[in-house]
């Protein structure tokens, strides 16, 4: 083989290596794009799932708050009624004691 044949063979090998490298980089780039799209889809599904969980949690929290509010209102109303009944009983006892005292003083 002559030197020009060697150079031609080397040039063909370099061109083949270059085209292989271009193909590899192209495949690698496409794989990266595909993975990115897959990750975006997965992230979108995760966000949607998370938003559903958060919405359910918020709904549950609001229901619990409403239930607690009703319980507190009921408790305070019952407490006010109990206090009113005790005041009424105390006033009646005071009136009875007053009338007994005044009745004893008059008699």
Q: Which residues sit in consecutive blocks of at least 5 with pLDDT less than 50?
A: none
Gyration radius, rounded: 45 Å
The total count of helices amounts to 1
- Compute the number of structural domains: 1
What gross morphology would you assign? rod-shaped
| Percentage beta strand | under 5%
Taken in chain order, the helices and strands follow as: H
> Helix coverage percent of residues?
over 70%
Mean pLDDT, to the nearest integer, reads 90
Q: Quaternary status of these chains?
A: single chain
Largest sheet: none
Q: Tell how many strands the DSSP assignment holds.
A: 0
Structural class: mainly alpha
Distance between the termini: 152 Å
Description:
With 107 residues, this protein is mainly α. It has one domain (1-75). The chain is 97% helix and 0% strand. The chain contains one helix and no strands. The protein has one helix at residues 3-106. The longest helix is centred in the middle third of the chain and has 104 residues, at 3-106. It is rod-shaped and about 150 Å long. 0% of the residues are buried.
Question: Which SSEs are present, and which pair or pack?
Answer:
Elements: H1 3-106
Give the structure's gist in a few sentences.
This protein has 107 residues and is mainly alpha-helical.
List keywords for this structure.
107 residues, mainly alpha, 1 helix, rod-shaped
């Amino acid at each position: 083989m002559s030197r020009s044949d060697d150079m031609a063979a080397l040039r063909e090998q370099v061109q083949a290596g270059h085209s292989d490298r271009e193909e590899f980089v192209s495949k690698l780039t496409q794989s990266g794009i595909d993975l990115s799209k897959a990750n975006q889809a997965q992230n979108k599904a995760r966000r949607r799932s998370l938003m559903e969980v958060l919405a359910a949690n918020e709904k549950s929290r609001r229901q619990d708050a409403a239930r607690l509010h009703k319980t507190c209102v009921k408790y305070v109303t019952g407490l006010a009624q109990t206090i009113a009944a005790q005041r009424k009983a105390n006033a009646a006892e005071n009136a009875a004691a007053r009338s007994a005292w005044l009745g004893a003083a008059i008699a």
